[in-house]
Amino acid sequence: MQTAGAILSIADIYSPQLLEKACDKALRQYHMPYYKTIYSNAKSINSEKELTEFKENNKKSGIVRGADYYRKGEAANEH
């Protein structure tokens, strides 16, 4: 029963939906997955989700520097 409680606590760290995806992935890989496998899957899925969100946010706004940054040999770049 401790293992079941530990697995359910992953939902407190990430989310119930992410735990469900991690369990599904683990059950496709192994007949009886361990906590470590499910936790690792949850961590991996969360990282992929964060990377996707980061890319989407940067598509909208981008990281833009002004023309002064690219001028060489001028006072704008000298600190």
Automatic annotation (TrEMBL):
This is Uncharacterized protein. The lineage of its organism: Bacteria, Bacillati, Bacillota, Clostridia, Lachnospirales. It comes from the Bacteria.
